[in-house]
């Protein structure tokens, strides 16, 4: 199933973890800056964040959330079950490219690297994966996403949240 993409007008805002959680919880993607701000205000209330947490931030960090915040939001929206696998600090932390080869078929994940989070969906065949982030949807044919210098293919994975849907 192909999911809705992040609109180009919102790509400059650093809300990758929030966006990955939106995909996992099957929430509607904010379609404008006003809707994004309203959604971030809702999240602030759920997470009981400081009043100015995101108000002071430059667009690069607007909406950035931690792993613990992601888990609390998944619990709050209760749209899926999830299981956390931590790789941080373990010897041999896998890179995104290596991890993709080990992911289960017909499954969904939120993958955290050091500075980014993405939503990953694996199809009926392991090579039929899709990575959703603010830049769009990436597949095996979008090799530049993983291969280019500074791309995500060689980044070490810190945490993987396996998403399981009840329906």
Provide tags for this entry.
5 helices, Cathepsin B, Chain A, alpha+beta, six-stranded antiparallel sheet, 167 residues
Structure report:
- Helices cover 29% and strands 21% of the residues.
- The chain has 167 residues and is an alpha+beta fold.
- The protein has a single domain (8-164), classed as Cathepsin B, Chain A (Alpha-Beta Complex), CATH 3.90.70.
- It has a 6-stranded antiparallel beta sheet, with helices on both faces.
- A hairpin with a 6-residue loop joins strand 3 (117-122) and strand 4 (129-133).
- The two termini are 14 Å apart.
- The model has no long low-confidence stretch (mean pLDDT 85).
CATH class: Alpha Beta
The CATH architecture:
Alpha-Beta Complex
Question: Which series of helices and strands comes N to C?
Answer: HHHEHEEEEHE
Rounded to the nearest angstrom, the distance between the terminal CA atoms is 14 Å
- The proportion of residues in beta strands is 15-25%
Sheet having the most strands? 6 strands, antiparallel
Give a count of the beta strands, DSSP E runs of length 2 or more.
Answer: 6
Residue share in helices? 25-40%
Mean pLDDT: 85
The strand line-up of the biggest sheet is 1-6-2-3-4-5
Taken together, the total number of domains comes to 1
Rg over C-alpha atoms, rounded to the nearest angstrom? 15 Å
Unreliably modeled segments: none
Topology:
Layout: H1 16-25, H2 33-47, H3 67-77, E1 81-86, H4 96-102, E2 107-113, E3 117-122, E4 129-133, E5 136-138, H5 143-147, E6 157-164
Antiparallel strand pairs: 1-6, 2-3, 2-6, 3-4, 4-5
């Amino acid at each position: 199933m192909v999911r809705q993409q992040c609109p180009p007008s919102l790509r400059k805002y650093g809300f990758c973890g929030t966006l990955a959680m939106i995909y996992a919880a099957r929430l509607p993607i904010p379609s404008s800056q006003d809707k994004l701000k309203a959604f971030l205000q809702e999240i602030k209330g759920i997470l009981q964040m400081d009043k100015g947490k995101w108000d002071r931030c430059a667009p690069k960090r607007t909406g950035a959330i931690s792993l613990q915040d992601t888990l609390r939001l998944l619990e709050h929206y209760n749209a899926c079950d999830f299981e956390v696998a931590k790789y941080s600090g373990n010897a041999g932390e896998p890179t995104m490219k290596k991890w993709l080869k080990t992911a289960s078929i017909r499954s969904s994940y939120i993958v955290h690297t050091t500075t980014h989070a993405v939503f990953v969906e694996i199809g009926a065949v392991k090579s039929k994966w899709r990575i959703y982030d603010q830049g769009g949807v990436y597949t095996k044919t979008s090799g530049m996403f993983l291969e280019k210098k500074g791309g995500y293919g060689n980044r070490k994975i810190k945490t993987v949240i396996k998403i399981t849907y009840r329906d």
